[in-house]
Recover the amino acids of this structure.
């Protein structure tokens, strides 16, 4: 039965593909234009700060616009300052500024913005040097600075360099005559038959499919992630990476279980939200505050914990997650 239901759609599809090309043959204009130039990217680093500058193209025409993206990556407890522009960037006119969403990966916060630059006349355009700085919020005297060097972008004209008196291009040759109306009717009928056959096939198949299993609750997902982390992090691995993964699992669980945007916040922002949240007891708040502060010391100050401390951290996370899962199972509609 399944082979028959598949055979009809395939037969209709073959007929449609055979009929349509001949009815759609028309004269085509010659290819004008060339493939777009590839983007240009440069990355510099200083201390904990890493800056990447990306240009959509090393050369544009007078009718195009240039996309400049400046991205800074630093630890989540650093404050990053990006250069500000209002109406122009060097010789270019600034037409739009778009801020990139902040992302936290492995304890490092990435942020940036994209500038849309427009030229006015052909020639050489200069993009000035751009300085990005990052300051450690815990040690304000510690500051990293990266300066991206100035760049020159060539803006070309749409006219030929030797063309002083441009003339209109000649018209294209006449297009070929379209196929007869009967041809379009046959092609349309085949397309309708194909659509009906596909709809019937997918309707029959959907009736045989079973409903997907329900999604795992947040606490089960988090506990499985901890088990996977322990399998991935073999003995002798980097403790900072292990604690970054462990805190990431805990943050995602708190977001899924209690609605706090923990993965998108720095440690200071999360602790401030935790202090004002009514869903945790004072004991749980103190436990989370001490645990996250200890994790930050291990991730950023490069403290080396002993194996017993790492095992205790895993037990703490599991107990916290299991307690939240049990309270969820015992209270319908709880936050």
């Amino acid at each position: 039965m399944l082979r028959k239901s598949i055979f009809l759609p395939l037969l209709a599809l073959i007929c449609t593909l055979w009929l349509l090309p001949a009815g759609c043959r028309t004269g085509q204009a010659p290819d004008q234009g060339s493939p777009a130039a590839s983007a240009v990217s440069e990355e510099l680093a200083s201390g904990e700060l890493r800056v990447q500058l990306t240009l959509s193209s090393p050369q544009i025409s007078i009718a195009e616009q240039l996309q400049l993206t400046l991205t800074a990556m630093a630890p989540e407890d650093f404050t990053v300052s990006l250069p500000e522009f209002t109406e122009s960037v060097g010789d270019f006119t600034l037409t739009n500024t778009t801020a990139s969403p902040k992302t936290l990966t492995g304890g490092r916060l990435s942020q940036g913005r994209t500038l849309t630059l427009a030229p006015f006349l052909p020639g050489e355009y200069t993009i000035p040097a751009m300085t990005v700085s990052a300051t450690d919020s815990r040690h304000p005297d510690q500051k990293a600075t990266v300066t991206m060097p100035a760049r020159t972008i060539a803006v070309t004209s749409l006219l030929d360099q030797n063309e002083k008196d441009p003339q209109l291009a000649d018209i294209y040759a006449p297009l070929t005559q379209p196929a007869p109306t009967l041809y379009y009717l046959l092609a349309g009928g085949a397309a309708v038959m194909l659509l009906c056959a596909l709809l019937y096939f997918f309707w029959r198949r959907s009736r045989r499919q079973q409903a997907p299993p329900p999604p795992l609750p947040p606490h089960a997902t988090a506990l499985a992630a901890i088990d996977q982390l322990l399998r991935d992090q073999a003995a002798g691995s980097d403790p900072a990476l292990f604690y970054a993964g462990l805190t990431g699992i805990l943050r995602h669980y708190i977001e899924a279980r209690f609605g706090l945007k923990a993965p998108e916040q720095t440690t200071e922002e999360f602790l401030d939200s935790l202090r004002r949240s009514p869903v945790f007891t004072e004991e749980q708040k103190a436990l989370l505050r001490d645990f996250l502060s200890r994790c930050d010391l291990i991730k950023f100050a490069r403290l080396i914990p002993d194996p017993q401390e790492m095992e205790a951290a895993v037990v703490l996370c599991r107990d916290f997650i299991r307690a939240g899962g049990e309270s969820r199972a015992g209270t319908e509609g709880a936050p």
